[in-house]
Amino acid sequence: MKKILILFGIILLLSGCYDYVEINDLVIISGMLIDYKDDKYEITSQVIENEDKTRIKTYTTTCYSTDECIYEISNLSNKDIFISHMKVLILTESAIKNSDNFIDYFLRDTKSKMNFYVYYVEDKYKKDILNIYEDEGSSFYLKDLIEFNNKIFSSSTPISFLDLVYKKTEFGIEPIYPNIQIINNNDKKNIYLNGLVAFNKNKKILLDDNNSISLNIITNKLNKTIITIPCENDYFSLIVNNSKTKYNWKDNNFIFDISLSTKINSCNCKYDLNNPKDIDKLSRIANEHIKKDISNLINISKDNNIDFIGITSYIYKHSRNKYEIKDINTIININTKINSIGEIRK
Predict the structure, then answer these.
(1) How far apart are CA 258 and CA 61, in angstroms?
(2) End-to-end CA distance of the chain, in Å?
(3) CATH 3.20.20.370 fits domain 208-346
(4) pLDDT digits (tens, 9 = 90+) for 234-277
(5) What are the tens digits of pLDDT across the range 17-33?
(6) How far is CA 234 from CA 210, 226, 230, in A?
(7) How far apart, in whole angstroms, are the C-alpha atoms of residue 14 and residue 162?
């Protein structure tokens, strides 16, 4: 029996894979934008038509299903579709609110790696967003944009397709999307990352950069960022190099215990940075400021009764009790350590 299996394997290797397709017979989808209106999908796909990425095009199709639209792109390009190298999926408000059927396509397609990033875009930008960077391709730019932001600023939060599926199926946590726009700079259009967006029924909730940083702190997704903090009539700024948040559900209170490791980036306040007591004062000022920002974020979640933080998910997993976020009392404890003043001397 073993000899037969080995012989069968050799025959397959010699004959080649039955569904093998030459690279030049493929069109590789690098990015996709999905809109939904009048019970139809409008899908714009950015594609690579040759191996060295010198021919990048966009195709727009309108159909009743994602499969049908992808099939039409294959007809338009006269090539087989390949989605394994897809980098980004961009969704309009209508697609997010009115139809989840497109998710099924990516879950069913065996060639989909499902690790691409998901974005939100306003209707006024949807026609241009995949056509801005014609040479390098907007899809590749958007992939690099969110990864760079996550590494240096943490003023947005990446969401992969698998993250999206998880948050749509898990109790107590709602998806939140990086918000992309188009801005003009020196008479040239540029893609711009502008905070985060969440949806609760017919309401759109916008989170600015400060809200996004707070979200990354309390969900343990912050890599590095700079926080500017007022002191008296001036400001100082901290580079946050490390943050750790622990949760506890106790006596009907949801408790955040947050530890931040920082160094001073700049300081215009009247404090002696060589004096440990003054450093302690700056730490206390930082604690109050960051606590206020995080409280503001939690209040946005409560006021709109949408849990994009995951508080009610945590409670359900640990107590099997279901709550609404608006009914949860939260306690925030913060310990900001200033470990270095860098090259600054006062």
Answers:
(1) 48
(2) 81
(3) no
(4) 999 999 999 999 999 999 999 999 999 999 999 999 999 999 99
(5) 434 446 567 889 999 99
(6) 19, 16, 6
(7) 37
CB 214 within 8 A of CB 227: no
87's CB contacts (< 8 A; 6+ apart) are 30, 31, 116, 117, 139, 140, 142, 143
Question: Rounded CA gap, 126 and 180, in Å?
Answer: 10
Q: Tokens 């939690």 — which residue?
A: 298
Phi, psi angle pair for 86, to nearest 5°? -65, 135
Query: What sign results for the dihedral spanned by CA atoms 119, 125, 130, 136?
Result: negative
Torsion 290-296-299-300 (CA) sign:
negative
Residues shown for the chain: 346
Dist CA 8 CA 270 (whole Å):
80
Burial bucket for residue 181 (CB in 10 Å: 0-12, 13-18, 19+): middle
**CA 248/CA 157 separation, integer angstroms:** 23
Dihedral sign of CA atoms 106, 44, 189, 137 in order: positive
Domain ranges of the chain: 21-207, 208-346
Cα dihedral 71, 74, 80, 82 sign: negative
